[in-house]
Amino acid sequence: MGIRLYLAMLFFTIALYPFDKQRRVPHAQCYWWSDILLYFNPYWKMKIIGLENIDKKKTYVIVANHQSLADIIVLYQIKSQFKWVAKESLFKIPVLGWCMSLAKHIKLERGDFSSIKKIYREAAEWLKQDMSVLFFPEGTRSETGEVGEFQNGAFKLAIKEKVPVLPILINGTRDSIPKGGRQFSAKIFCTLRVFPAVETASLGPDDFDRLKDEIRSGIVAGLAQC
């Protein structure tokens, strides 16, 4: 299935190269890939809540908690255009990494301060082009399922660019591909919940902590209800 996705993305990248500089069509191929993996897998059951909170005409800084590599599959169920901010090692995974490169996602080199500055410049450029950007603000996958502390960058960026933040809760994927693994494991029931977007137009540079805490608290409270 992964090879078919890659070939489809490669075809549309080449065929539409002069017309689709943002790689929207290659990105959209991941929707059917996600559908097939989720709906035809007898061990996975998924509940999706809150898709009505996504305005396809708006640009967002999307933030989601992070439980496993399976979150990538699950998040394509929002059927929206965005660029991931993902660690460099994911781009090195055969097929998955090739697809991420074709879609022009944003590569983060861990521990490299210049890379961190670069990804925020790159993310800002995408936002200016009306392309949403998706962050995992915990910075790494949770080992316990609990929500870790959020890093500041996504929230500073949203305020600076005056872009609303779209919070997403993911629950139940941790046991499917746990941290350190790449193989699907046990039968799972997972939930994806999209919260209403939080506007940033009236916020100033010093409000990022309040914005960060508000969004993290909402996701934590949502997890407690799952």
Describe this structure in words.
The protein is an alpha/beta fold and 226 residues long. The protein is 39% helix and 16% strand. It has a single domain (2-225), classed as Glycerol-3-phosphate (1)-acyltransferase. It has eight helices and seven strands, in the order ααββαβααβαβαββα. The protein is globular, with a radius of gyration of 17 Å. The protein starts with a helix and ends with a helix.
Given helix and strand content, the structural type is alpha/beta
Task: Give me the strand/helix succession.
Answer: HHEEHEHHEHEHEEH
- Portion in helices: 25-40%
Write down the domain tally.
1
* Strands, total number: 7
Second CATH tier, the architecture = 3-Layer(aba) Sandwich
> Can you say what the CATH homologous superfamily is?
Glycerol-3-phosphate (1)-acyltransferase
Number of helices: 8
Report the mean per-residue pLDDT as an integer.
90
User: How far apart, in Å, are the first and last alpha carbons?
Assistant: 31 Å
The major pleated sheet works out as: 7 strands, mixed
CATH fold group: Glycerol-3-phosphate (1)-acyltransferase
Alpha-carbon Rg, integer:
17 Å
Strand content: 15-25%
Pick out the low-confidence regions. none
Major β-sheet strand ordering = 1-7-6-2-5-3-4
Identify the overall geometry: globular
